[in-house]
Queue: 3 jobs
Job 1
Amino acid sequence: MAIRAVNRSRMSLGSLRGRTKGLALVAVLLIATVLVRTFGNALGIIGDDMSFPWEWSRPIETAIDDSIGWVTRNGAFIFDPASDAILAFLLGLEAILLWVPWPVVILAIAWLAWKTAGRGVTIFAVSALLTLGVFDLWPSTMETIALVVVSVVLSIAVAVPTGIVAAQSNRVDRVLRPLLDGAQTMPSFVYLVPAIMFFGIGNVPAVIATIIYAVPPAIRLTNLGIRQVSPDVIEAARSFGTTNRQLLLKVQIPMAVPTIMAGINQTIMMALAMVVIASLVGAGGLGEDVNRALGRIRPGEAVLAGLGIVFLAIIVDRVTQSAAKKRQAALEGPAR
């Protein structure tokens, strides 16, 4: 009984102290509020309507504008050739896709789906593409495919070497990790800002924005795939006298291909997700059809164009996943 009484007294004392601290905190906040409201405007801390002193941001905004203008002017020897090369690649691929007769394109995609994903995906791919053609969305579909192909090719060209370097260096990995976290958590529309600043309006900024948005998964999974290669395999390869280059090209990368393919799959999906947003800066294709139909309040057209993007996403997802699974099975077969 005595112990319980002592425990109760301690609990009541602790509760009293907690309430006292809470009341003291409330009092301090009230006093601070009165002082800031009385003297804050005179000191320039707050505005007349108790708002933030937004004038402080003007020098920063001016400095950012000047810096961007300087980079754009002095970096024209880089931005202009890069823009011309991307645009030529995009327009050339788009012209080829539109030049090839639609039955040939459908047969090529059906053959690829049959070889990788089987009969079900082949039937779906053919049906989906025929549906897009019937609804007069074939040119837009080819434009979208060209945009996605260019964006994904350039994303892979950036992601795979970067992921390899990150897998070989813990320091590079630590530097890249917060950058990739920020890139994957940032709203999609934000990626249009740097693209417009340095490349203006049109297909090129749409490709650049798509690359920035879609490249992080491929970098992460390339890095992860190489790091997950079994140490026993690496040790066995080194015991045969392989060099670091041979170890990377003939052991680590081949064994990491399924994981790298998963990263490429995610990159393709994210590139397709940017199609509609990229249309806001001048990209064509199904995204432009969706955007234009919504602007004219034609939900039927928007739904059909949106379904076209969904169809492409499903086809690509099934094909790439099946290819990755077959690669994984091929690697596991000899091991068994």
Job 2
Amino acid sequence: MSHAATPPDLAIAELRRTAQGGGLDAQVALGKELLAGNGGSAPEGAALIAAAAQHGHAEAAAVAANLIGAGAATAEDWSMALMYLQQAAEGGWQAARQQLALLSGDPELRREAESAPPPDIWGRLRRGIDLGRWLQPSQKSVLSQSPAIATFDAFLAPEICDWIVERSRPGIARARVFDRATGKGEIAQARTNSAFEFDFLSIDLVVLLARARIAAATGYAARVLENTGVLHYSVGQEFFRHFDFLDPALPGLATEIATKGQRVATFLVYLNDAFEGAETEFPLLGRRHRCPKGGALFFMNVDPSGAPDRRTLHAGLPPASGEKWLLSQWIRGPAG
């Protein structure tokens, strides 16, 4: 017996018909749906995006920049990714223009780009981006040798922090924890803060470069970084004492480790500093820590043998005033 197509299936089918008729907007929309895992294959979606970009579609060029920056097909090629971002900016894609201005770090060029920008401004902004500064390892300060805990001063510039906050703000929702039996996310009283997770359709080249900087600073490949998250704490909200490693003794988490690897390390970037309290606490170490805006805290969740390190018990303490924004990046070990 055949089953009627669900509304998402019908929407994909309609996009396919329109795209086959030569509609570039539909082609890009279809490509994004396929890249998100809806109704087809990611390679097909990437091919549709690439073809639309070649035909001068500005949004497609911005998506292509993300694909190249993420290393979706091969290793990351930041120079090529920025070329596509420039193409998107020249085509009028506002988010691409904002990213080029932000990444350039040149206040004069930024001001020039804000009002009546000359045609060559986007190329000048692109050429002003210092990829070496982004991709070179940052200087770290060791707080603890065992367990390994370190900080990085001025890891991200204040304007980059502000961008990430605003990109995540519309999607903030109640944070979840792993269910101990099933491994699925669930809301729990132990975690009352909110969170947002960048997926392929919400990420951009600014966030991708931040991920590359984290990879360079920690020595892990970008491909083992989980989806980047942003955490938000209002007054009184907290994440009670917990571990970031996945406990292999719990059935749901053992399956997660086998398929995706252990969560071996945590990297946190403090995105603002307009709050009181809200430190990251390590109670078994007698330590509380808070970084200034743009600073980062890194700690290993496992010992040198790869076994869970229970000394890394920690908590996100509640703000006494203001609100706290934090980039959260978990790092995986090998699966199996």
Job 3
Amino acid sequence: MDGIDLALVRSDGSNFVERGPDGFVAYKDETRQRIEEGLSVAKSIANRRMRPGALALLERELTELHHLAIREFLSANDLSMSEIDLIGFHGHTVLHKPDDALTVQLGDGQYLAAQTGIEVMYDFRANDMEYGGQGAPLVPVYHSALHHNISSQYSRKNPIVFANIGGISNITYIGTEGQLIAFDSGPGNCLIDQWVKEKAGLDFDENGAIAQEGRVIEEICTRYLAHPYFQRSLPKSLDRKDFSPLLDTNVTTADGARSLTRLTALALMFSIDQLPDKPALIIVCGGGALNPVIMQDLRALAQQDNIQVITADEASFSSAAMEAEAFAYLAIRSKTGEPLTYPMTTNCRLPVTGGVSALPTIARENLKSA
């Protein structure tokens, strides 16, 4: 809920990927507050088209903010709207219940297409669920493409795992023969963020500064790792609400942050044990790659199995921009009808494409009649 990530990608939707500039536009505090409130309202949604309460207004606000962010991004990089073929617009997930085949992302693709004059691909997850999939994770097919563009010093390290540590962590396993397996591995930053927000009024533990002052309380880690999700068979996915916030009143702010940071690393390495083979290399991306305490714990745990851990930046990729790049890439695959998900990434019955196209002319007509 921190803001909007943007990235420019040129690709054939297969293994050719040319990465361009990226950017970030932070949400104002009042927007973050409305999103937080929207998450509670979204619990009442029974149909993915429903927008109860203030969600319809929030959806328009978020879409307009994306429109303005695109304009600012292109201007900052001396680009015009006419130079862009497609926009991949994920929107903001406010509800994800894979067991009920229900996922809701706030974002009006038709409106964004009308405002920018560019074709928009959006609503990426729903079709996967129509074919029995979990609707997540979607980034693995992009990880697979990046695997073909990895810097030469790491190119012979197989198998490889991409570990994306956002609110929820997910991993992509790419086997020696290109086998693709992906699933959500457990809490990423969400529990840490909730804890420091409650205890210190901070949105996140920047650079792991609070965690560095604390000690690991093993009982906290053990309690979370007893969650039944970790015993479920692959593939599988999570909603950020699946793990309850830490409520221990007798734990200091620093000890709580340190314990939850350790949990993030433990959960990821626990999930590594569910793969067919141990990877030789783990490439970490997402916000977790910027937390030195998470990286320290991951490296220490992985070293026990002789696994090297590096950040996406060390692999000549971008930790911060990877998800934004992924949805640009997925927009291209969606346009060409190539699969976005596979049975061993989301548990869909067969490889399926996804996404909905919003054309500028159609969008304008819809807006006029609204």
